[in-house]
Amino acid sequence: MAEIRIEKTAHPKEKPDSGNLSFGKYFTDHMFVMNYEKDKGWFDPRIVPFAPFEISPAAMVLHYAPEVFEGLKAYRRPDGSVQLFRPQENIARMNRSAERMCLPQIDPELFMEALLALVRTDSDWVPAGEDTTLYIRPFLFATDPKLGVHAPSMCTFAIILSPVGPYFPEGVNPVKIFIEKEDVRAVRGGTGFAKCGGNYAGSLRAGERAEANGFAQVLWLDGVEKKYVEEGGGMNIMFKIKDKVVTPALLGTVLPGITRKSVIEMLKSWNIEVEERLVTLEEILTGIKNGDVEEAWCCGTAAVISPIGEFATEDEQYTIGGFKSGPLALKLYHALTDLQFGRTEDSFGWTVRV
Ligand code: PLP
Ligand code: COI
């Protein structure tokens, strides 16, 4: 495996105040970069000062968008050391996303080595404030300077780091979600399961409309009938319906969230039944009205567990549990974050020390 070259910055930046980070606004001193050419494979893995890339105006990513990314976090433990949460899952998902976009695979061992080496290099950037973490953003894009529409043969893989606070200003307080009935995010056979930039580009219009009207996120429905609930803009969704937890099945259109997978495993370890299946919007809205839907929450790396207090359409509001964070969502939030931050023992073996 190629050795990672490290070139440290001569000008370390001033760190932001950890009480005022918001999400994805600040970046650390260094980044990981590695290049790919079809006949050479991956070469020159390096940690260098955080700086702009130079790419051709004809670079394929700027025209046809072959790009995939990941999102995970480094957590500061009470003893001051740092750990990651299920990084192997992000590595595997990035390679699945890359396969869909004809981008090259990355050796999982080298990927893990790059994550650990970069977080070690900038470990003093892992914040220690409550609910603060170092968000890790690996991404891979095609740089071929060619306008022909073909599978890429030149790529860059990079990892950048951003100290972050909660994604939603509401934190663990309930958010409002707008049920999007005009735009759609994904269809079967498309790219919904892949974490590719294009999925997010197509979601911006609906997201902006929802935000302008006071909503935290949109709820995406299936792209064909607009009958089934799929996921949030940047997070998966779950419902507590009577004594079960129900979440949309992974049928190619929904991103297979690592938080979703972890929550399902955690719920099952508590002997709570989880159903992964088709969920109609009708079932949810009727269930909210008659009280069968007792709780709803979003889950994701950025969102953690965010209770949902209200769903709305253009003309109707559906309030859940008196717009209070439900007990199961709160229990999950605490169990998950205690494990991620190393405040409890990791009986699942999910954490990796940096
Ligand atoms: N769904 C979408 C569209 C997302 O962007 C994310 C965030 O990564 C998720 C779900 C949740 O995935 P994870 O829990 O792996 O962060
Ligand atoms: C993440 O949770 O890592 C994401 O990529 C979601 C995005 C909305 C920030």
From TrEMBL:
One GO MF term attached to the UniProt entry: branched-chain-amino-acid transaminase activity
Domain of life where this protein originates: Bacteria
Keyword Amino-acid biosynthesis: yes
Class in the EC hierarchy, top level: transferase
Cofactor: pyridoxal 5'-phosphate
Catalytic reaction(s) noted: L-isoleucine + 2-oxoglutarate = (S)-3-methyl-2-oxopentanoate + L-glutamate; L-valine + 2-oxoglutarate = 3-methyl-2-oxobutanoate + L-glutamate; L-leucine + 2-oxoglutarate = 4-methyl-2-oxopentanoate + L-glutamate
The UniProt record lists the keyword Metal-binding: no
EC number: 2.6.1.42
GO biological process annotation, one example: isoleucine biosynthetic process
Swiss-Prot/TrEMBL keywords: Amino-acid biosynthesis, Aminotransferase, Branched-chain amino acid biosynthesis, Pyridoxal phosphate, Transferase
Pathway this chain belongs to: Amino-acid biosynthesis; L-leucine biosynthesis; L-leucine from 3-methyl-2-oxobutanoate: step 4/4; Amino-acid biosynthesis; L-isoleucine biosynthesis; L-isoleucine from 2-oxobutanoate: step 4/4; Amino-acid biosynthesis; L-valine biosynthesis; L-valine from pyruvate: step 4/4
Residues the record lists as N6-(pyridoxal phosphate)lysine modifications: K195
InterPro entries given in the database record: Aminotrans_IV (IPR001544), Aminotransferase-like (IPR036038), B_amino_transII (IPR005786), BCAT-like_C (IPR043132), BCAT-like_N (IPR043131), BCAT_family (IPR033939)
NCBIfam families, alphabetized: ilvE_II (TIGR01123), PRK13357.1 (NF009897)
Family under the similarity heading: Belongs to the class-IV pyridoxal-phosphate-dependent aminotransferase family.
Protein name: branched-chain-amino-acid transaminase
